[in-house]
Amino acid sequence: MFLLLAGWSVAAHAEEILYHYAKSIRLADRDIPGIADKIASFETNFDKALSLVNQAELSRLSNDDVEDFFEISMTLSFYSNEPHHTQQMRRAYDEMARRGLAKRRMGQRMRDHYVASRMIEEAREFAESRPELDLKVVPDFRRPARVVDPPTLWRLSRDGRTLDRERFRLGTGAHLVVVSSPWCSFSQAASASIAEDKELSRLMRRHSTWILAQSMIPDFDDIKTWNDAFAGRPMRIVEKNNQWAWVPSWDTPGFYFMKDGKIVTEVIGWPGPEQRAKLKAGFATVGIRVQ
Questions:
Q1: Model confidence pLDDT, tens digit, residues 110-143
Q2: pLDDT tens, position by position, 140-180
C-alpha cells in the first residue's frame, strides 16, 4: 500500500514522514517565542501528520511512527489545552499500550493532559482504570444543576475529593484578582509574607480571589495543602483561560487591582516583603480603605 501526501510517496510504514513532522514541531518550539505563533506553526504539521495517520491507519504504522504521533499530539495539547489534541494523544497512547510500548511516564502525561484540557471525567476514568500506573487521584467533578455562565472557576472541596464549578462575578466596585500557583515558590513566599501582616491579610480575605491558570495539575493535594495553609485566600482553578481575556499575563504571582471590571493597578512578582507596601497602595488606588 502506498500513499501520496504533500509531495511524499511513502509506504504505510512511514517513519520518515512522521519523524519529519515531529522534528519540525520541535524546531518550531525552540525557535518561535510566542505561544500563539507556536501553535499556528504546530497546527500545520499536526494536520498533515493526522491526515497521514488517518489514511494509513494507526495500527499499521511502525512503533516509531506511533511514538512520534504521541509526541506531536502531546506538544499541541500542552500549548493549546484543546481536547481535540488530547484525544489524538490518547489515540496514540492506546496503540502504544496495545503493543506493550506505553511507559508509566506516558500514562502520567496522559492523565495530566486530560486535566489541562479540562477533560476531568476522562482523567478520572483513565487514572482509576490503570491502578498499576499508581497515578495521582483526580477529584470527582460535580456538575451543577444549572448552566454556569463564564468565566468559571473550579472549587476544590475541603477534603480534596470533589470539584464544583462556580461563576466568577467581578461586578462593580473594587476587587483584587491574584494569578498564582501552589507550585510557584514566589507565590508561596508572597502568601507567607502576607500572612505576617494582619492588615494585609484582612484586605486579602475580604477583597481578593486567588486563581490558578488552566494548566496541568500534577497533584490536587497540593491545592488542598495550600487551601489548608491559607484559608483566607483559597486557590480557585480557572476552567478555561480564554474566558479571562482581560488577564494580561498568567505569570505568577500577578496582583490585578480591579475597579468596575477594569484593571487599575498591577503588582507583578515577589522579590521580597517590600511588595507588601505596593499591595496596600494598590488597594488604596481602587478605593479600599487601608488602615
A1: 999 999 999 999 999 999 999 999 999 999 999 8
A2: 999 887 888 999 999 999 999 999 999 998 778 899 999 99
Kindly report, residue by residue over 54-78, the tens digit of the pLDDT. Answer: 998 899 999 999 999 999 999 999 9
Q: CB of 233 within 8 A of CB of 241?
A: no
Q: Where are the domains of the chain?
A: 2-133, 152-285
DSSP string, 192-231: HHHHT-HHHHHHHHHHEEEEE-SS--S-HHHHHHHHHH-T
Residue 157: strand, helix, or coil: coil
Does residue 199 contact residue 207 with C-beta atoms inside 8 Å? no
C-alpha cell recorded at residue 55: 489514511
Residues forming a β-bridge with 8: 5
How many other β-carbons are positioned within 10 Å of the β-carbon of residue 79?
15
**Domain 152-285 top-level CATH class:** alpha beta
- The C-alpha atoms of residue 137 and residue 134 are separated, in whole angstroms, by 9
Place of cell 494509513: 56
Longest dimension (CA), the chain: 78
The radius of gyration of the chain from alpha carbons, rounded to an integer in Å, stands at 22
Cβ contacts of 285 within 8 Å, gap of 6 or more: 257, 264, 265
How far is 196 from 180, CA to CA, in rounded Å? 18
Q: In terms of C-beta density within 10 A (0-12 exposed, 13-18 middle, 19 or more buried), how is residue 117 classed?
A: buried
Give one DSSP letter per residue of 227-274, joined into a string.
HHH-TTS-EEEES-GGG-TT-----SSEEEEEETTEEEEEEE--SSTT
What is d(CA 275, CA 258) in angstroms, rounded to the nearest whole number? 18
Q: For residue 282, which of 270, 263, 269, 273 has the smallest C-alpha distance?
A: 263
Q: Is 154 helix (H, G, I), strand (E, B) or coil?
A: strand
